[in-house]
Amino acid sequence: MSKSEQISHMTNVMAKFVGYTGKVLPDDVTAKLEDLHKKETSKLADVIFTTMIENQRLAKELDRPSCQDTGVIQFLVECGANFPLIGELEALLREAVIKATVDSPLRHNSVETFDEYNTGKNVGKGTPTVFWEIVPNSDQCSIYTYMAGGGCSL
């Protein structure tokens, strides 16, 4: 696979991953919500937990974000210094966010602060935010997403 094909493939995979993270909570979080729900004795808390769990079920079933506010996307990247796409990673993550925003869809949360306009693409100066940890003597890469803010920061 050529380098441009690798970049295209990784961009598409990351776009799907970003969209997925807006729709499905991690298994441990879902399990914890269900566990806390079972222990709850308050009627109001029961309604809240029931609603949260139902919302997650519907998001998965209907293939829609679990919250209308999908937050500002952040990436935590543990990347080997020898990873073949290290130099292209920030740009392809940005493109993945643009693609996921249309395909998933995600809410357009990125605003150009000083110009005071919404980009409509969910990207802007400093967004998505990428936090790096470079691992010496490695060619591996792990990428974690976090949608910060709003109701999605369950």
Structural summary, described in words:
There is one protein chain. This protein is α+β, with helices and mostly antiparallel strands. It has one domain. Helices cover 44% and strands 18% of the residues. The chain has helices spanning 3-21, 27-39, 43-62, 89-103; strands at residues 72-80, 111-112, 117-118, 129-135, 141-148. The strands form two sheets. Strands 4-1-5 form a three-stranded mixed sheet, covered by helices on one side. The protein has a two-stranded antiparallel ribbon with strand order 2-3. Helix 1 crosses helix 4 and helix 2 runs antiparallel to helix 3 (43-62). The longest helix is centred in the middle third of the chain and has 20 residues, at 43-62. The protein is globular, with a radius of gyration of 18 Å. The termini are far apart.
Would you spell out the secondary-structure blueprint of this structure?
Blueprint: H1 3-21, H2 27-39, H3 43-62, E1 72-80, H4 89-103, E2 111-112, E3 117-118, E4 129-135, E5 141-148
Parallel strand pairs: 1-4
Antiparallel strand pairs: 1-5, 2-3
Helix pairs in contact: 1-4, 2-3
Can you tag this structure with a few keywords?
154 residues; alpha+beta; 18% strand; globular; 4Fe-4S; metal-binding; EC 4.2.1.32; metal ion binding
Runs in which pLDDT lies below 50 for 5 or more consecutive residues are none
- N-to-C SSE series? HHHEHEEEE
Largest beta-sheet characterization:
3 strands, mixed
Question: What is the total domain count?
Answer: 1
The N- and C-terminal alpha carbons lie at a distance of 39 Å
